Amino acid sequence: MGPFTPFERQELILKFCDAIEANWDELCLLDTLEMGAPYGRSRREIIGRLRFCAGLATALHGETIATSVPGEAFAYTLKEPVGVVGAIIPWNGPLPATIWKLGPVLATGCALVLKPAEEASLTALRLGELLLDIGLPPGVINIVTGFGETAGAAIANHPDVDKVAFTGSNETGRHIVRASASNMKRLSLELGGKSPHIIFADADLEAAARSAAMGVFANSGQVCCAGTRVFIEKPIYDEFVARVAEIARHLKVGNGLDPATEIGPLVSGQQLDRVVGYLDIGKREGAEVLAGGGRLTEGALGKGFFVQPTVFANVGDSMRIATEEIFGPVLSAIPFTEFDEVVARANDTRFGLAAGVWTRDLSKAHRIAARIRAGSVWINCYNIFDAALPFGGYRESGYGRESGIQQLEEYMQVKAVTIQVG
Ligand code: ADP
């Protein structure tokens, strides 16, 4: 069987959408059973993203270029699949994370070896089965389970892997970069963050408080772009922090299969220890606990890895809870006085994945969007993802873009063909 044509790839992705819809409940259930998030994924996120890639499968093309000597030489570019992609993904959203890699691979005609996280491998395996069911030949998409240091490292080091698309921690990201040197693999790295969420006094405070809270607490804070440093303009600081703490106290934390649950557990005992460790660090550093501050131990919750949504007030910029990625439901509320000052402090981080800004002043919003050093800036909202939008980091949050046409470009080689005509 020869390579799939763009038309065939498009049809295959659309068939894959149908197979996912037909098995939707099971896929959502696998995610919840494995990592605890409240049951139910966004159809727009999963199906919409795949359809976006299906549309692009027949819309990828090179360019014609006149060259600097138009009468003598004519040139064009060809776009080709980059080859074998190794995808290494984390556990914090197995279904979406797998789809974010599968969509562009199928659209561009690459082959894939995908390693899900050891904590949550079942959803990716099931998606692999569905692809075989709809007629994808074995060997095109390969789901390989295993630990990071063995299976993950084998992908990262392999001489026949042309590109690695990695989503995960900064520490592992550094291993991947080193491993890529062996054969000059292409890389895209979507790593951690310590994203600022800036609340100006003129904002819609009710909506901003909800957004600031859920920008951290959603998925129990296990989100790379969580807006964990919440900068609040001084005149509204006390009122705003009280609102956020109130929201935190009322969030329903529990079993992801209970429809009333808003916040599930952390993924593992290891993650629980890490987050509780940071809660202790925050207290020792002198931050004030306005909500939460510990593990949840009542009744059945004591058997799981549940942590209270936590709001720390009076957090100093250099405290560890304000500089290190915690990956748990821990919000740091930090006061500020002026525009230039908050821009400088928001950018004073080694990360640069995302930022949020709340203001009713449009010119202020545009000015700050231009000055924030991060791959995504959300104004009067947070955590809005769209298949058409590039997503990725500045600085130590990584390089390359996931999502959007930009991601597909990174799964393709470009070849320049020049013809002498003069
Ligand atoms: P997290 O802290 O979120 O678990 P990791 O970066 O450790 O983040 O894990 C993300 C993915 O990277 C997982 O699939 C994991 O197995 C994999 N991984 C971990 N260590 C390595 C490594 N040395 N080489 C390649 N992959 C790894």
Written overview of the protein:
Helix content is 39%, strand content 18%. It is α/β, with parallel strands linked by helices and 422 residues long. Helix 4 links the parallel strand 3 and strand 4. Helix 1 runs antiparallel to helix 3 (43-57).
Brief write-up:
The protein is α/β, with parallel strands linked by helices. Helices cover 39% and strands 18% of the residues.
Topology record:
Blueprint (H helix, E strand, L loop, with lengths): L5 H17 L1 H12 L7 H15 L6 E2 L7 E9 L2 E5 L5 H15 L2 E5 L6 H12 L7 E3 L4 H10 L5 E5 L2 H11 L5 E5 L5 E4 L5 H13 L11 E5 L3 H14 L18 H16 L3 E4 L18 E4 L6 H4 L6 E7 L2 H9 L6 E5 L3 H10 L4 E4 L24 H7 L1 E9 L2
Parallel strand pairs: 3-4, 3-6, 4-5, 6-7, 8-9, 8-13, 9-12, 11-12, 13-14
Antiparallel strand pairs: 1-2, 2-15, 10-11
This protein binds adenosine-5'-diphosphate.
List keywords for this structure.
binds adenosine-5'-diphosphate, alpha/beta, 14 helices, Aldehyde Dehydrogenase, Chain A, domain 1, 2 domains, 422 residues
Mean pLDDT, to the nearest integer, reads 97
- Cα(first) to Cα(last) distance is 41 Å
Q: State the low-pLDDT regions, or none.
A: none
Q: Report the CATH topology name of the largest domain.
A: Aldehyde Dehydrogenase, Chain A, domain 1
Q: With helices defined by DSSP (H or I, 4 residues minimum), what is the helix count?
A: 14
What would you give as the CATH superfamily of the largest domain?
A: Aldehyde Dehydrogenase, Chain A, domain 1
